[in-house]
Every structure is written in C-alpha cells, then in structure tokens.
C-alpha cells in the first residue's frame, strides 16, 4: 500500500509543481467569485431574511459558499484541466510510459483535486472567520471535510471526463448536475422549503451532505449525524473513483 501511495504521490507532486507556477492567478479566480456571492447575497438578502435554522443568514450562506467552493475547485480540475492533461498535452501518456498504471494516474489526480478543494475552502474559511461568520474552533474541521468533498467531486468529474471527446461535453454535466446541486442542496436556502419529492431527490446528492456537515462545524454544533452525512460523499468518492479507473483503462489502454 505504501508503494501505491508513493506512485500516487508522484502524480500529485507533478500537478502541484505545475500549479505553483500560476498559483496567484488560480487562487484569485477561485477566491474572488465565492466572496462576491457571499457579500452580495449575504448583506443584500440577509438584511431581509434574518435568521435561518438558527443561523444568521451570513453564517448560513458562508457554510454553503465554502462547500460550493470545494466542489467547484475539484470539478473544474477534474473536467477541463484533467482533460487537457490527458487529451491535449498528452501528459498522461508520458506518465503511463513510466512505471505507473492507469490507477496510479487517476488516484494521483483525485488526491490533487482533494488538495485543490482543501486550499479553496481554506481561503474562504479564513475570510469568513475574519468577519466573524465562522468564529468557533470546530470550523477547522471544515478543512478535512473539504478534502473529502474534493475527492468526491473530483472522482465524479473524472468519470465524466472519461466519456468526453471535447470540452463541449462538459456543458451537459455542469448544466444538468452541478448547477442543480448548487441551487437545490441547501446552499442558499433550507432544503425544507422545497417540495417533498424534490427534497428527497436532492438529499441523495453529495453536495447536500457536504453542506450539512460544514454548516454545523462552522457554527460549533457537533453531532453524531455528521458522520452519516460525511459517509455519503465518501461513498461517492470510492465508487466513482473505481468506475473512473475502469473507464480510463477501456479508453486509454485498449
């Protein structure tokens, strides 16, 4: 197992070194947009809404923005950048010419996506803590949750990438899966306000469960139910990672 982690780590390190060259631009892009949503909606709508589920609207929204930021970071990496490395730059071909298997490449990519989510959520967490939206020490628990969320959404994105023949293919996933999850997973308003069938359907999707873990942690509310919510994105990550490995084997090695 240690040898496998070493091979995955080589892929992770390669991506980290490349990212470091453009880190400032990448961080600004992933950092600015969530903050615009947080302050524009938080201060704009928050003045009309007041409290939601025992949270101030700014605190309620901050947890949703952190969760969405973790999802977006891994999703973008797993779709556009992974496809570029695989199909355009042929970086994966070079890796496979080394003593690496396709499972090593995919798992290294997924670990890197978890790291990107960790970084993205960490930056938003620092700002929300500075403004007092996430003041409790348990908010530090958001960081490993963001990493798990990155593994989940990175695996899902790579599975989609395994079917893609061009960048245009990703529009279907973003429009039909990512956007509905952002709008209907409790990021901007409680899920209880939705009709029962829609609420049950959205509760099966991973972003809802990530939000349900991040929000109590950010507010200092610990509970056993957090483990159940955390199990859902973990299960998504495990299953879709195996499916992505299988799909890439069929696509690249046969």
Strand element count: 2
| Tally of individual helices | 11
Strand content: under 5%
Shape: globular
Main sheet: strand order: 1-2
Largest sheet: 2 strands, antiparallel
From the helix content, strand content and strand pairing, which structural class follows?
Answer: mainly alpha
pLDDT under 50 segments (min length 5)?
none
User: What gyration radius follows from the Cα positions, in whole Å?
Assistant: 18 Å
The CA-CA distance between the termini, in Å, is 26 Å
How many structurally independent domains? 1
Please name the defining characteristics of this protein:
two-stranded antiparallel sheet; mainly alpha; globular; 254 residues
Describe the structure in your own words.
- The protein has about 250 residues and is an all-alpha fold.
- It has one domain (about 1-250).
- It contains 11 helices and 2 strands; from the N terminus they run H-H-H-E-E-H-H-H-H-H-H-H-H.
- Strand 1 (about 50) and strand 2 form a beta hairpin.
- Helix 1 (about 1-20) packs across helix 6 (about 100-130).
- The longest helix is centred in the first third of the chain and has 32 residues, at about 55-90.
- It is globular.
Short description:
The protein has 254 residues and is mainly alpha-helical. The chain has eleven helices and two strands, in the order H-H-H-E-E-H-H-H-H-H-H-H-H.
Compile the SSE list and pairings.
Layout: H1 2-21, H2 23-44, H3 46-49, E1 51-52, E2 55-56, H4 57-88, H5 91-97, H6 102-130, H7 142-161, H8 170-184, H9 196-202, H10 206-219, H11 225-252
Antiparallel strand pairs: 1-2
